[in-house]
Design a protein that fits this description.
This protein is of the alpha+beta class. It contains seven helices and five strands.
C-alpha cells in the first residue's frame, strides 16, 4: 500500500486494506484454535498422568495469542513484508503455551509426551536447560505445527511451547521485567545478580528433586511404583468383577 500519512484511503486501496485486515483477523483466530488444541492435549496428559501415577507433573499452564498490534510490531522489527503469508511463514510465536512443572525431570517427560503425538509436527526443539543462555535463562522450547480443522479443510498452525520448572519460571519472569525496564541495557551489577540468582534457582531445583526423591523414591521409582499399584488395583478389580458376575455365594 503506498499511502503517505494524511492521504485518505482511495476507492482502490480500501478493499485491499479490508482484505488485509480480514486476513490478519483470520490468522489470529487460527492461532487461537491451535492454542485450544494444544491446551486440550496438555490437559489430557495431565489428567491421564494423575490417573496412572497419582501424580501431576504440571504445576500450571499459561497460553496466549499475540495481539495484532504485537504481531505487526514484531513483523516490522524482523523486516517482514506486511502480508499474512510472510508473517505466517516467519513468526513462530504468535501462539504460545508455557508449561510450568515441579521438577526438571518432569519438563523432559511432559515435552516428550507432547512431541511424540502423531498429529503434531515438531519443527524445532531447543534445550536451554542442558545449554542455558549466557544470562542464565533456562527452558525447553519446542516449535510445533498443529492441524486446525476448519470448514474448508485443515490448516497447519505453528505454536511455540515453553516448558520449565517453577524456579526457572520465577527467574525468567523477573529477568523479563528487568530487561524491559532497562530497555535491554541491563546494568552490569544487575546482570551479575541475575546470573547469581539463576545459579541459586538451579540449586533449588536440584535440592527439591533430591527431597522429592527421598520422600517418594526417585522420579523413575515413583512411576514404577505407581504402575505396580495400578496393576494391583486392576487385579483386585478383576477379582471383584468376577465375584459379582459369578454364582451367588451359597447360603444366601
Ligand atoms: P524471539 O526471541 O521470540 O524472536 O525468538 P528466537 O528465535 O530468538 O527464540 P528464543 O528461543 O531465543 O526465544 C523465544 C522466547 O523464549 C522469547 O520470546 C521469550 O519468551 C523466551 N526467552 C528467550 N530468551 C529469554 C531470556 O533470556 N529471558 C527471558 N525472560 N525469556 C527468554
Ligand atoms: Mg530471542
Amino acid at each position: 500500500m503506498d499511502q503517505s500519512p494524511g492521504t485518505p484511503l482511495d476507492a482502490v486501496s480500501l478493499p485491499f486494506a479490508r482484505q488485509l485486515r480480514d486476513g490478519f483477523d483470520r490468522l489470529v483466530m487460527e492461532h487461537q484454535f491451535a492454542v485450544d488444541e494444544v491446551m486440550t492435549k496438555v490437559s489430557i496428559l495431565q489428567r491421564e498422568f494423575m490417573h496412572l501415577h497419582h501424580y501431576n507433573p504440571i504445576e500450571h499452564v499459561n497460553a496466549r495469542v499475540k495481539s495484532l498490534d504485537s504481531i505487526l510490531a514484531k513483523a516490522v522489527r524482523k523486516g517482514l513484508d506486511p502480508t499474512v503469508d510472510d508473517v505466517r511463514a516467519n513468526l513462530s510465536d504468535i501462539a504460545g503455551l508455557r508449561i510450568t512443572c515441579s521438577f526438571i525431570a518432569d519438563t523432559y517427560r511432559v515435552l516428550d509426551a507432547l512431541t511424540s503425538q502423531d498429529d503434531l509436527t515438531v519443527l524445532s526443539i531447543k534445550d536451554y536447560i542442558a545449554q542455558p543462555k549466557p544470562n542464565g535463562y533456562k527452558s525447553l522450547h519446542a516449535i510445533l505445527e498443529v492441524p486446525v480443522f476448519l470448514s474448508d479443510g485443515p490448516v497447519p498452525v505453528t505454536v511455540e511451547v515453553q516448558v520449565r520448572t517453577i524456579a526457572m519460571d520465577f527467574w525468567a519472569s523477573l529477568e523479563h521485567k528487568i530487561y524491559y525496564k532497562y530497555d535491554g541495557e541491563v546494568p552490569h551489577e544487575l546482570v551479575d545478580d541475575l546470573t547469581e540468582a539463576a545459579r541459586v534457582a538451579q540449586q533449588l531445583d536440584e535440592r527439591m528433586a533430591k527431597l522429592h526423591g527421598e520422600i517418594h523414591g526417585s522420579a523413575e521409582m515413583t512411576a514404577h511404583h505407581a504402575d505396580a499399584v495400578s496393576r494391583i488395583d486392576g487385579l483386585v478389580l478383576q477379582r471383584l468383577l468376577a465375584q459379582s458376575s459369578g454364582p451367588e455365594p451359597r447360603g444366601t
